[in-house]
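In this section we walk through a basic example: taking a raw amino acid sequence and producing a predicted 3D structure, encoded as discrete structure tokens. The instruction is simple. Fold the sequence below.
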Amino acid sequence: MANRSDPMAQEVHGTNPQRIVEKILRMKVYATQYWKEYCFGLTAETLVDRAIEIDHVGGTYGGIRKPTKFMCLLLKMLQIQPDLEIIVEFIKNEEYKYVRALGALYLRCVGRPPEVYKYLEPLYVDYSKLRVRTFEGWTITHVDEFVDELLTEDYSCDIALPHLPKRWHLEQQNLLGPRTNNADGLDDDDDDDASSASSERSAKKPERGRLASRECEQRSAPSPSSSRARRSSRARGSCPRARSTCPRTSRRRPTRSTSRSRRRSA
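The resulting token sequence is shown next.
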């Protein structure tokens, strides 16, 4: 009897709300000690006290895939089906980030697509860290990454999420307005950074021109060492070494006239 859904609960996506969680995972949740001791007899009002106590998010952990407290509370919310106003307060609170994550996942499971985009997109500016417990161990994520996973992926916290249409499709049907920038002053800061960067570039341009002109002048002006070497080479002639040391100039071949005179005398 304790594991049945509330008789006043309405069907979600054409089925029992608890069936959003797979049967194997539901059976594991029903068998946990946390479900039997702390989730029995919870209502929409007393659920808040249990949600404040959780310190991580995730579906299952360990080698035998035990369900986390986060998953137990999610299944309890699917069972009692609290009002939308309570879930919106879960999402809008800024003091307890795990309560916000729990409300976001529940709304993603049971909410209509326009409501999902309306209440979850403002969480993109929340960069709080979240501890995630998985079967591999502990990891760290952020609220904005967790929300992006809910809006873009089909699987989160070891459960298959209901199909969510793309945002542009809802905009074409006039079910959702255009996306607004929730980061106040972000565009102004970007404009200021762009203007300051352009001013710095314009200030650096004349300096670069002056440096380039100086380099050209230095290259065009002859150095004193090169001018001295040219003068010495001109004075010595075509051969850079002295004639006395040059083997070609020191040895002279006899001319034809001298060789003929020697033959006649002989």
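Looking at the output, two observations stand out. The chain is about 55% helix and 10% strand. Residues 18-173 form one domain. In the next section we compare this with other chains.
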